[in-house]
Structures are given as structure tokens and as C-alpha cells.
Amino acid sequence: MSEPHGPAAIIVAQASPGTLPAASGVEIAVPAAEAHGSNFPPFDVHTFPSQLLWLVIAFAALYLLMSRVALPRIATILEERHDRIADDIEEAGKLKAESEAAAEAYETALASARAKAHGIATETRDTLAAEAETRRKSLEADLNVKLAAAEVQIAATKTAAMANVRGIAVEAAGTIVNTLIGATPAPGAVEEAVDTAIKG
Amino acid sequence: MASGSVIDPIHQFQIIKIVELGQPGGIELAFTNSAAFMFGIVALVFFFLTFATRGRTLVPGRLQSMAELSYEFVASTVRGSAGNEGMKFFPLVFSLFIFVLTANMVGMIPYAFTVTSHLIVTAALALVVILTVIIYGFVRHGTHFLHLFVPSGVPAFLLPFMVVIEVISFLSRPISLSLRLFANMLAGHIAMKVFAGFIVMMTASGVVGWFGAVLPLAMVVALTALEFLVAALQAYVFAVLTCIYLNDALHPGH
């Protein structure tokens, strides 16, 4: 705020125009307003109407420009940003819910698949077990039949063998008797003796 | 400052007529340096705010941040003092704040005229505030607005005194509002000018004076910083007090 002039006088108090000694070539310009009123500009009543007039016009213009143009403009920007942030948060929340739902669906699908797999396994095992059981039973029945047949055959063979044994015994007894006494016994007597011996 | 050669601390407040507009009804009217600065301030504020927000970007740049910051600062001040209902006065408070702030700041430019260093200007601004309070108060609340001057829960014999005190305190508001701003700007600018004048005087007196001038120079630097603070602070104080007074218009009665 300093003025780069040479030798200068400083006047702290109110300056009375015209009474100042002009210090070495420095001149004091006396503005027109000072000529007929207060020397202190802020208290110079003559300037008040002009200042008021222009202040009213300027401030009214400022108020209109602010309230009609500038402030709604900034308000719109702030509102848009606010809305955008709110939208983004909402979108994020929606996406999160969606991903959670997807995770849940995945879990459900996994559980049902697991249950299904378990069911299939059980079913297969049961089927296989039943099949094995049937096969085992039929095999057993088969074997029983074969066993019975074998037993019958054994019995038949045994009977046949026993019959053969009697014949052999009768023949052998005849031969032995012939050898011992030189006479051939009557076939009926030999058979009777052999039967008696077998039974005894 | 333009015409004088003397270091005159008062000279910076001089109203200079640029265009004389005659004297309708015996009243002097002229387009003055003060008027020029007023319009300059309005233009500066308007072009700054519109230029800063020209991009309307979602992520603000530096200038847009400043514009948004000023908006939100004033908006939060209004909301804090007068509530959400007070937001209908937001354009007024914002205009007052930005006008006073810009006038104070422009006044800090060397050789610039400080519009707010004139009592008539600050008084007119304070009157705008107080008339808004009175008119809105009566329109909104009718005679109930007068409850502002009648504190509740006061004994009957004290009531006349209380009413007188309340009325005086209400009437002193525009005076204190205008004088505070005016006196701060005036005194600060005079102090800076006086100390700056000391520098010129001392350097003129020779080599010793060159060293002696260091002290007032340091003082001027400190005062300049202080004045910037005062310029911003007084604009804020003006806005806050405006909000508090408007709150009375919205919610009269204690």
C-alpha cells in the first residue's frame, strides 16, 4: 500500500484541505467532494445517494444472478453428485444381494446334487444287493436240486452196488462150496444163505 | 490514491466521480469509483462461479471445488444457525457473504478501492438484513413476531424493563452489524497506510533511515496478513450474524 514517492508528508489525522504546507514539491489535490462537506470520505454525506443508488443496483443484480443462475447451478451439480453416489451405493447393494442370492442358489444346488448323488448311490447299492441276493437264492435252489439229484443217484448206485454185492456173494459162496465139498449146491439154498448173512 | 502525492491514509477512501449524473431533486448523483468497484465485484463473483462450474463435472476440479466449497460453507452456516427452514434465505445470505468477502479481498489489492470501508455501504447491507427480518417476521407470524421482545418467564414488574432492553438490543443489531465491518476495514487500511508511510519517510531521511525502515516494513507485512484474515473473518461474521437474526424472524419468542 505504499506509494513510491520521494519526500512526503504523512497525515494521520483528518487533513484540512488548503491548510497543509506543501512539502518540497508535493501537491495536495483537493477532491471536489471535500470542498463542501466532511473531510473524512466515509462520513461525507454528499456521496451517500450515489453510493446507495449503485449499491442497490449492484446488490440486486448480484442477488438475482446468484439466486437465479449461479446457486441453482451449483445446487444441481451437488445434487447430481449426491444422487449419483446414492445410485452407486444402491447399485452396489443390489449387486451384493444378487451375488449373495447366487451363492445361496449354488449352495442349494450343491446340497441337492449331493443328496441326489447319495440317493443314487443308495439305490444302486440296494439294487445290486437285491440282485446278488436273487442270484444267490437261485444258485442255492439250483444247488439243492443238484444235491437232491446227486443223493438219489448215490442211493441208486448204492442199491445197485448192494445188488451186485449179493450176486457176487452168491457166486463166490457157490464156488467156495464147490471147491470145499466138490458138489454144487442148489442155487436157491445158496441165495437163501447169502440173504441171511447180509441181513444178519 | 490516483491523484494525491501526499501519504494520506484517508485518501484511499476518497469517492471519485467518474461520470456526473446531475442533481435530480437537489441530490448529487454520480457514477463513482465505488460504484465501479461494486459492479466489478458482482461481475467477478458471477463470472468466477459460472466459469468454475462450466464443466459441471462429477469430480470437481480446483475452481469448481472452490465454488462448491463456498456454496456448502454458506449453506452449512445457514442450516446451523437458522435450521433447514432458513434455507429460503440462502441466496440472500450467500449474496451478502460473497459480496462482503469479495469487496474486502478486492480492497486488499494495492490502489484498489474498498467498498466496505464506507459506512453507508455496510449500513445499507445491515438494513437489508434487518428489514428482511422485520418484514418476514410480520408476514409470517403477524403480531406474534412481537413476542421476540417479550421474554417468557419474566416477573410482571420486570417485563417493561425487559421489553425496553430487548427493543434496544434489536435496534442496535443493524448498527453493530454495519459498524463492525466498516470499522474493521477502515482501521485496518489506515493502519497499513500509516506504517507504509513510515517506511517512505524513513527511507527519505538517509542511510540510517533505510535500516530504521525495517521495523515498519515488518509491521506492514504482519498487518497485511492480519488484514487478509480480518477480510475473510468479517465476511463470515456478517453472514453468521445475518443467519442468527434471520433465525429470530423464523422462530420468534424465546
From TrEMBL, chain A:
Its placement in the membrane is given as: Single-pass membrane protein
Q: Which keywords are on file for this protein?
A: ATP synthesis, Cell membrane, CF(0), Coiled coil, Hydrogen ion transport, Ion transport, Membrane, Transmembrane, Transmembrane helix, Transport
Q: Which Pfam families match?
A: ATP-synt_B
Query: What are the recorded GO MF terms, alphabetically?
Result: proton-transporting ATP synthase activity, rotational mechanism; proton-transporting ATPase activity, rotational mechanism
Show the InterPro entries listed in the entry. ATP_synth_b/b'su_bac/chlpt, ATP_synthase_B_chain
Where found, per UniProt? Answer: Cell inner membrane; Cell membrane
List where the protein spans the membrane. Answer: 52-71
| GO cellular component terms, A-Z | plasma membrane; proton-transporting ATP synthase complex
The family assignment reads:
Belongs to the ATPase B chain family.
Give a short account of what the protein does: F(1)F(0) ATP synthase produces ATP from ADP in the presence of a proton or sodium gradient. F-type ATPases consist of two structural domains, F(1) containing the extramembraneous catalytic core and F(0) containing the membrane proton channel, linked together by a central stalk and a peripheral stalk. During catalysis, ATP synthesis in the catalytic domain of F(1) is coupled via a rotary mechanism of the central stalk subunits to proton translocation. Component of the F(0) channel, it forms part of the peripheral stalk, linking F(1) to F(0). The b'-subunit is a diverged and duplicated form of b found in plants and photosynthetic bacteria.
Which protein are we looking at?
ATP synthase subunit b
Organism of derivation: Ancylobacter aquaticus
Automatic annotation (TrEMBL), chain B:
Q: How does it sit in the membrane?
A: Multi-pass membrane protein
Record localization:
Cell membrane; Membrane
Coiled-coil annotation reads none
Keyword field contains Transport: yes
Please describe what this protein does.
Key component of the proton channel; it plays a direct role in the translocation of protons across the membrane.
Give a GO cellular-component term.
Answer: plasma membrane
Which NCBIfam families does this UniProt record tie to the protein?
Answer: ATP_synt_6_or_A, PRK05815.2-4
Q: Does the keyword RNA-binding apply?
A: no
The name on file for this protein is: ATP synthase subunit a
**What is a single molecular function from GO for this protein?**
proton-transporting ATP synthase activity, rotational mechanism
Organism of provenance: Ancylobacter aquaticus
Q: Which UniProt keywords apply?
A: ATP synthesis, Cell membrane, CF(0), Hydrogen ion transport, Ion transport, Membrane, Transmembrane, Transmembrane helix, Transport
